Amino acid sequence: MQKLKRGYLFDYKKQTWKVTDIYKIKWDDGSQTTEYQAKNKKGEVRYLMLEFVRKQKTSFTFWEKIADINQFLKTISKTESDFVSIGNAKFPKQFQYKNVTYTFDERCDGTCHYDYETERVNSLDYTNDDDSKFFAIQLWDDEIEISTGISILKSQISNIQERTTFISSDSVWDFISKYFVGIIFTLFMLMTFLLNKCSSNSWDGNRDPNDSTKVYRNSNNYYRGRSSRGFGK
Questions:
Q1: Alpha-carbon span 95 to 101, nearest angstrom
Q2: Residue 44 phi/psi, 5° resolution?
Q3: Residue 166 in 3-state DSSP?
Q4: Are the beta carbons of 20 and 5 closer than 8 angstroms?
Q5: Distance of CA 61 to the CA centre of its chain
Q6: Does the predicted TM-score (pTM) go above 0.85?
Q7: CA 7 → CA 98, 138, 149, 154, 174, distances in Å?
Q8: How far is CA 83 from CA 71, 180, 184, in A?
Q9: What are the pLDDT digits (tens) for 87-140?
């Protein structure tokens, strides 16, 4: 599982997911998490998270970001309960979301590493009664992210391979960008071949040099009858 890289695919719940990005977070309490951003054929984005805690088994969770953050904030602002702070913002210690009651568990601060950049993150973590569902409110340098997650088994992630069983719009663009020169060269050669073939089929033995509607080949040069202007020599 830890050998997943960008471009790798894995299967989860009868769907194939492609790893599009990797985030590694070192938390101040000594634990670490690795988040694999993944996209399926429909373009839906999810996050496979592996959490590493010393002397404990690795835990596996699957996350989805909440798109309408403003609506969620309006909902919880009406909740009457104790609050916990993160930055200048306050959030209730208990609330309901999609018929699930979440209770504040802990605050975690850490540093996220991705590519060659680092960024601080402060997270408020919530769980339901049996710790099977999770809710996270994360404050980054320039934005706030809210996500829901569920606990999964390692065995639910299968068929990990470096392969491409589906092509998304991003992968098509990546392919074009990577092989742009080769694609242009191939198209040029193909057009040259087709033009030569069409020209050779139009030539016959009865050539009229005074007919300006036809193009003839003389050695390796092209010319048009009646005038030296026209196709280059």
A1: 6
A2: -75, 140
A3: coil
A4: no
A5: 19
A6: no
A7: 33, 26, 23, 20, 11
A8: 19, 54, 60
A9: 778 899 999 999 999 999 999 999 999 888 999 999 999 999 999 999 999 999
